[in-house]
From TrEMBL:
Name of the protein: NAD(P)-dependent oxidoreductase
Coiled-coil residue spans: none
Entry-linked PANTHER family: CYTOKINE-LIKE NUCLEAR FACTOR N-PAC, OXIDOREDUCTASE GLYR1-RELATED
SUPFAM superfamilies (alphabetical): 6-phosphogluconate dehydrogenase C-terminal domain-like, NAD(P)-binding Rossmann-fold domains
Keywords assigned by UniProt, alphabetized: NAD, Oxidoreductase
Record domain 3-hydroxyisobutyrate dehydrogenase-like NAD-binding: where: 167-282
Organism: Pedobacter punctiformis
Domain of life: Bacteria
Length: 285
């Protein structure tokens, strides 16, 4: 049994398998989710439940957050029973959500004033990597806090790299997710073009995945396309959020403008489906 008491806030597609990894690694884990039904699967494998973020931070040493967006972070910190309502000091708060660098800088400052540490530590990889502890983690914050958190982060990911001060993890993640959007739209357009030329999707993907241009993304999302399975591993609405955040940080390159437009146009119909549902939106154009 590891001694560090872990708190986990946010049990969505990513939070459930990530918190599950820490339970498997024998950490004592307390979880909180706004929708209480999502706590059940972790309770069944040994997690304690907290009724609010404030209660959770009081009971634990290191608090992880994995929620949707800036608004969710604001509510978790400033809500009625939010983290800031607790009498807590000497805690490390690790925000793994993909959010703006600005909110991380703001929350890091507030945490420091009350004697706590804040790290922004977003992840690259999706549900499959979360289930196997193979995420790639980019961290912004103080080196001392990072060094303390690193052994736990290494249970969640195959690497955890400190890239700069608070906010730098978020900036790095926005850069990486821009590439993710280019890949997704690129793969979808390539399949549709080949199909229009009479090439079967399976044959095309078989060739791509055996060629230098193939990668984990083309394999996983290629399978999703051939199996017609668009259940969200990474919801399309989240890439729209990320591309908007990147735009707010100044990204305005030709590809970035194009993918933002394409994914925004698709969001009302396909927002709850997986990012690769962009192929359905492009096909229906
Ligand atoms: P998700 O399945 O949509 O889950 C979102 C989580 O955020 C849920 O626990 C939800 O609680 C919580 N939440 C949303 N708004 C809230 C609020 N106002 N107050 C409290 N909790 C709130 O999202 P996900 O796929 O796990 O992604 C989580 C984060 O990781 C996002 O920032 C995403 O961009 C990023 N990310 C995702 C992936 C991926 O492949 N899925 C990969 C890398 C990074 P409820 O259950 O109560 O709604």
């Amino acid at each position: 049994m590891n001694n560090t008491k872990i708190g986990w806030i946010g049990l969505g597609n990513m939070g459930i398998p990530m918190a599950g990894q820490l339970i498997k690694a024998a950490y004592p884990v307390t979880v909180y989710n706004r929708n209480k039904e999502k706590e059940t699967s972790l309770k069944n494998i040994g997690a304690d439940i907290a009724s609010s973020p404030a209660e959770l931070i009081e009971k634990t040493d290191v608090v992880f957050i994995m929620v949707s967006d800036d608004k969710a972070i604001d509510e978790i910190f400033r809500g009625e029973r939010g983290l800031l309502k607790a009498q807590a000091s000497k805690k490390i708060i690790i925000n793994m959500s993909t959010v703006s660098p600005g909110i991380s800088k703001e929350m890091a400052k507030i945490c420091k004033q009350s004697g706590n540490e804040y790290l922004d530590a977003p992840v690259s990889g999706s549900v499959k990597q979360a289930e196997t502890g193979q995420l790639v983690i980019m961290v912004g914050g103080d080196k001392q806090a990072f060094d303390k958190a690193k052994p736990i982060l290494e249970k969640l990911g195959k690497m955890a790299l400190l890239v700069g001060h608070n906010g730098a993890g978020n900036s790095t993640k926005l850069a990486i997710n821009s590439l993710l959007a280019y890949y997704a739209q690129g793969l979808a357009e390539t399949v549709l073009f080949a199909n229009a030329q009479g090439v079967k999707t399976e044959d095309l993907l078989n060739l791509i995945n055996n060629a230098a241009i193939g990668n984990t993304f083309t394999k996983i999302k290629g399978d999703a396309i051939t199996q017609d399975n668009f259940n969200a591993a990474f919801a399309l609405k989240h890439i729209v959020k990320d591309l908007k955040l990147a735009k707010n940080e100044g990204l305005s390159s030709p590809l970035a403008q194009t993918v933002l437009q394409t994914f925004e146009d698709a969001e009302s119909r396909y927002g709850e489906e997986d990012i690769i549902a962009i192929i359905k939106a492009l096909k229906n154009n």
